[in-house]
Give the backbone structure.
Amino acid sequence: DFTFKSLVFPAETSSSYVELVPQNWPSNLQAFTLCMRVATELKGGREVILFAYRTVDFDELNVWRELDGRLSFYLSGNGVLFAVPELGALQTHLCFTWDSSSGAAAVFMDGKKSLTKIYKKSHTIRPGGKVLLGQDPDSFVGNFDANQSFVGEICEHVGLCAPRPHHPKHGLREDARLICLTMPLVVDAVWALWSIGAGIIYDYFHTSAMEERIHTLENVLSIHQFVIAALSAGLILLMTYILWRKH
């Protein structure tokens, strides 16, 4: 894990970069979830490096915004590319996931998942490298190109983690990071339903036929309260499930 408030890269450069030092790095990384928040005003016309992990001889894991706006990552060779909405000046939460055993690779943008692609099955990411933000090292921490440098802001958190092992009882892999991506969606749904219900109440109480419609209003409110209660209960169960799996 790497944690900080904000990193601002104000201009193209062939020298400035940030090195991140992980507290723990698996000897043979065979699955990962890499997440970050990114904002940039760089448009198409040039590629942009978002994350680089390089050993002495290899680009082990590089994440890019391609010339045409697609997002991609490369594991020691050809990459896997995803046609997604273009990055912009508003912060975008990105997660890249990959698993060696199946080759499954995907991108999440603000909690929305791309299609799954099969990439580099049985591959292993080697240890002993350097993690850099802002530049693409064509040699070991050197030989940078300003036309590939990142310009913009990477903020709050960059995290690279291996998925937790299979649960000994159920044989299921726990990926709490991906489960947590669904929580904002549940909260948004509850808020949307509450707003709709409030609008219905307002409309009914500002009509001349209030007495004739009061029975219908009671039915609508009952349904509205039931749906909110169900979604809230689902959120509580999801949180309980995650805490149970952690312990």
In short: The longest helix spans residues 210-246. Residues 165-187 have pLDDT under 50 and may be disordered. The CA atoms of residues 30 and 124 lie 5 Å apart.
